[in-house]
Write a structure and sequence with these properties.
- Strand 7 (251-255) and strand 8 form a beta hairpin.
- The protein has helices at 48-67, 78-94, 101-118, 128-140, 145-164, 189-201, 224-234, 240-245, 280-293, 312-329, 344-357, 363-369, 374-381, 391-394, 401-405, and strands at residues 8-9, 18-21, 28-34, 37-42, 206-210, 216-221, 251-255, 259-263, 275-276.
- The protein has 15 helices and nine strands.
- A four-stranded antiparallel beta sheet has the order 1-2-3-4, with helices on one face.
- Helix 2 packs across helix 5, helix 7 (224-234) runs antiparallel to helix 9 and helix 12 (363-369) crosses helix 13.
- It folds into three domains: 4-67; 77-164, DNA polymerase, domain 1; 189-392, Orthogonal Bundle (hpI Integrase, Chain A), CATH 1.10.443.
């Protein structure tokens, strides 16, 4: 509440524009009444004439926003709109509509890059040029095109939220970012055999990672678990992220006309249908289950891989470290095109094996089972489907009358 004795109208301006002081602040505040609302802002000065100047600037800013059809008030700040958008998105995450990791990733992008750049902006000030300049600064920092697309998507969501709240009259134009497909590397049959056989041969071997001074920084040991993981992923199509969350309660062994695992891990990228494995996966899972049972870690609520680590991010990092060391030992870190292989390459390999080895397999069925889309199969997996992989079909001939007689 203002101190009554300090209230002063700004000379030569509407009487509704005033400055005043309050008990809780050493500074003057500016106040303006418009359309049934009171707008206030600190002038950040205790000098009367400077407070008048700050109040006039505040008044003119309100007029400009009102003339432009923009909502006036603090909710127009980019930071406020971004936090509101994340809060609403969190509600959708709790309802299971979106991935739980979405807000974590987008909060990181906001904190590290977006807020330091846009904190001083009102959303109405963000136009094509501002967006293009922001994306150019990210490019100069070395961020890749795929990452720029993620920043563009997040910025668009914040501005869409502002538009729905009628803070801005329309969305600005966005620069076009051309994203070329960058398929992950996979293992051909020979490389896969080399990888899994070396994983088996290295069981019991200890790895010592040393710092620059030569002191041991980390010790890891190859176990049966990594060998099982490689076979499991190539025969089940699961993503690495599924390995973090997969529990024994998510796995059912089915023995009917066909033998397979029915996997029901938590929803991944809006896909929640069960995954049907190859027959080999049953033996691999039962071997992994026995391996964990010997350590009393094979209950329904236990994780299938590295259940001793309740911190699943740490468990995943440990598996990745072991896998990368295996790639280095086997000289398989890069494929023939120089593409870096990761744990995700095992899923890529699983799908490629079905494309190249399956008997006229339907790509839509494959996509559904792998919890992806037929378009993704065509773009990212089918891109490796070279003509030489299907020579018999390329060389096939329709039966002619002469050949029929013969």
């Amino acid at each position: 509440m203002p101190i009554p004795a300090t209230i002063q109208s700004v000379p030569k301006y509407p009487s509704k524009l005033t400055i005043f002081r309050i008990p809780a602040s050493p500074f003057y505040w500016a106040r303006y009444y418009d359309s049934g609302r009171i707008f206030k802002r600190t002038t950040k000065t205790d000098q009367t004439q400077e407070a008048f100047k700050a109040a006039i600037a505040f008044y003119e800013e309100l007029l400009v926003r009102k003339t432009g059809g923009l909502m006036i008030g603090k909710t127009s700040r980019f930071e406020v709109c971004a936090k509101e958008m994340l809060k609403l998105q969190e509600s959708r995450i709790k309802r299971g509509e979106l991935s739980a990791s979405l807000n974590v990733n987008e909060q990181s992008r906001l904190r590290v890059h977006m807020l330091p750049y846009f904190r001083a902006y009102d959303v109405g000030q963000i136009d094509y040029t501002v967006i293009e300049t922001y994306l150019n600064t990210l490019t100069e920092k070395g961020l890749k095109v795929a990452t720029l697309k993620l920043h563009e998507s997040l910025l668009r969501k914040v501005l869409k939220h502002a538009h729905r709240k009628q803070i801005i009259p329309h969305l600005p134009a966005f620069p076009t970012i051309t994203l070329e497909d960058d398929p992950r590397g996979y293992f051909n049959s020979w490389e896969y055999t080399k990888l899994q056989s070396n994983a088996k041969a290295l069981i019991g071997t200890e790895i010592v990672v040393r710092n620059q001074q030569g002191k041991a920084k980390r010790r890891m040991r190859f176990t049966q678990e990594l060998h099982n993981l490689i076979l499991f992923m190539v025969n089940t199509y699961v993503r690495p992220s599924d390995i973090k969350t997969l529990k024994h309660s998510h796995v059912a062994v089915v023995r009917k006309d066909n033998t397979y695992l029915r996997l029901s891990p938590p929803t991944t990228k809006k896909h929640n249908k069960p995954i049907i494995s190859m027959p080999v996966a049953v033996k691999v899972y039962e071997r992994q289950q026995q391996y964990q049972a010997e350590r009393e870690l094979a209950k329904d609520d236990d994780y299938v891989f590295m259940p001793e680590h309740r911190n699943r991010d740490y468990a995943y990092v440990q598996l990745v470290r072991l896998f990368y060391h295996l790639l280095d030992v086997t000289d398989l870190r890069l494929d023939a095109k120089g593409t870096v292989r990761t744990l995700y390459s095992l899923r890529h390999t699983a799908i490629m094996f079905r494309i190249t080895k399956g008997d006229n397999i339907d790509w839509n069925t494959l996509a559904q089972n792998a919890r992806t889309s037929a378009e993704m199969i065509t773009r990212f997996y089918g891109s490796h489907y070279q003509n030489e992989m299907n020579v018999a079909q390329l060389q096939s001939l329709k039966p002619s009358k002469k050949r029929k007689k013969a």
